Amino acid sequence: MTNLFTPFDAQMMALAFRLAQKGTYSTTPNPHVGCVIVGENKQVVGEGFHVKAGQAHAEVNALQQAGTLAKDACAYVTLEPCAHTNRTGPCAKALVNAGVKRVVIACTDPNPKVAGKGIAILEQAGILVQSGLMEEQGKKLNEHFFHRMHNNKPFVTVKLAASIDGKTALENGESKWITSPQARRDVQAQRASSCAILSGADTVIADNPQLNVRVNELESAIAEQFLWREQQPLRVIIDSQNRLNAKAYKLFNDAHPSLVYNLAHNENLNHAQVTQKQLPSIKGGSREFVDLHALMSSLGELQINRLWVEGGASLSGALLDHNLVDELIIYQAPVLLGKQGRHLTNFTSPQVLSNARKGKITDLTKVGPDIRTTIRFN
What we know:
By secondary structure, this protein is of the alpha/beta class. It has helices at 7-20, 58-66, 91-98, 117-124, 135-141, 143-151, 181-192, 201-207, 220-229, 292-301, 313-321; strands at residues 34-38, 44-49, 74-77, 102-105, 128-131, 155-163, 167-169, 196-200, 234-238, 258-262, 274-278, 281-284, 287-290, 306-309, 327-333, 342-343, 360-367, 370-376. The chain contains eleven helices and 18 strands.
């Protein structure tokens, strides 16, 4: 399809992508979308991006800026215009009503409520629709949204922090801080781009964390965009043994919601900001644990696109054992903690090397004095 497009088309779509990226920290659970309206004289008359779920979509924002200049114009959109009415009206019909004559789309929307339907509305109105310009870039921009739509579960990123010899703490549990302030600030940006943060009861009991985004540690541009979201990522805690008490831990006593998955209702977690959800159990030695596959399906139903996991070796190991990790992000500091240090993960060791879990390094970045390695699976 690339022969359908000119260098000018590519230039305008690149602008639409830059607009879409402004919603990276705020659109959840919706995808990030940008739109550019170009008049007959090849002048940009409207720009827009989707800021927040429930607010106007990118096309509507661009059309409002363009006004009457949208008539007979060309619209460049990073994702197929929506065809259904939810909290906002269908963008495909808005483009039709504005009188645009051509729409260029990077990629079609995987949402079954939209997939192909937006294009059909445009074509039925006599609008020339051309799709596939920078298609791979469009899919990459919203890869977590695409993943949920295709798999009915979130894209799971497990974060680990370790010494260069692969230890997460001293033998006595001391771990603050192995990695640098720069690495910890980078983690805040990762949290900000996630829909939910998952941890386990072990981590809550040991560290009493808040598991929130510390806005003051974000770069100013990211902080501004995250604040458009007007909410923290959902904190998700696994507490199979009902060991937690709402009065005892910080994350249950702020203004932000938490979701606790357990096997039976825990009266000690009855709190205005805490929701409990019971899931089926699976056997683990002599104990019963929350079924992690059921948990992922539940989070998919809650429209969680990207799940950021910050837990101990047991949780990361269990997720790896159940093949539920799509990505590992490992922050390694140039320090040695020795053979008595605590292990990175309790992933079950394979019996033969050929069965070792293999991933692909997709990014290697120096963050302050530390190294951030990104590894993809599946």
